[in-house]
Amino acid sequence: MAARTYSRRTFLARSGLIGCSLAASPLLTPVSFAAAPWDNRLVVIILRGGMDALDVIQPYGDPAYAGLRPSLAGGPGNGGLDLDGYFSLHPALAPLMPLWQAGELGFVHAVSTPYRNKRSHFDGQDLLEAGTPGLHQRRDGWLNRLLQVTPGVEARTAFAIGQGEMKLLQGPAPVSDWSPDAQLALSPQAERLASLMMEDDPLFHAALSEALDLARDGAPSQLGGERRPAAHRRIADYAAQQLRQDSRIAAFSINGWDTHNRQSGALRRSLGRLSDTILTLQAGLGTAIWRKTTIVAMTEFGRTVRENGTGGTDHGTGGAMVLAGGAIAGGRVLGQWPGLDEAALFDRRDLMPTGDVRAYMGWILNAMAQTNRADIRDVIFPGVDLGRDPGIIRA
């Protein structure tokens, strides 16, 4: 077990490399687990880079949608898979449609953390994982605080796999690091070179990110040159193994959601990884444990409503959550839809958030971990307004 010396932010700051491209890079994939005294399973996936909610859960029924996205607009007539007569699903998530039809896939639209205006990946991810209403208020993560208020949690309950860090699990509940596969990330020297090259050229950033994705996924093994499963599948398979045993919580990242340029190709690849991850978890967990499992995928912020001049979208505000698992009451797009008229947008550019990701997560914890509401409001997500129970978990 190797102790952490520097945080991701500290390393980048000391290297002079803080920037959009590396914060959203597909190179950092830490995984964490925790044991807990309940029988349900929780998987939290951080989608680093800012997932474009309007391209994933496409509001084709909104009259303003198509005009705002001349090349990116989806819908049943543009390859989208109809969900409910108003929203459609990006075709890259087609393998998940059987889960939707079984009520084991759902979405929450027009949600965000309390983070507003600056649209920094680092700050947005920090706030998402800290679960606090403002930046730099706490140094621990909300999943660690869940462990702190859960009776029966042992002193050393969590460990992280891979390189980098997840603030989600930082805190008094100890977390150890383990790297079972050195090929889950590039070397620090390669990361530094790649980030320097990407820093000043958005088009090259997109092309290099694609090349790195292809180089990482399905890279030949060092034994016999056979192609190995892609990193995200290996992570999901290992997570399923742990959740079949004593672990009850797993947390990791899927990166590469920063789609400033050529979004159609980049998003398709990222959604393919997300789909593969969910289905690998389902297969690895088996039917009995899958019925007790909740998967929540969340992102630091959404993206602009209007597409930009390079076939992409820029940092925005309102986004979406992806919910999967046999424990959820799916087959629904939850959330209050604000509309896409200019007057209804946040800062006249972004999807207006009408819900707080922390509130939805709080109700999930209340149902699947029996966490009391006072601990959710006062400790895990300080100051959150839970509102009404949206009924995400099956009764």
Automatic annotation (TrEMBL):
Pfam families: DUF1501 (PF07394). The keyword Signal applies. InterPro entries: DUF1501, TAT_signal, TAT_signal_bac_arc. Keywords: Signal. Coiled coil: none annotated. Residues 1-34 form the signal peptide. NCBIfam families: TAT_signal_seq. This is Twin-arginine translocation pathway signal. It comes from Phaeobacter italicus.
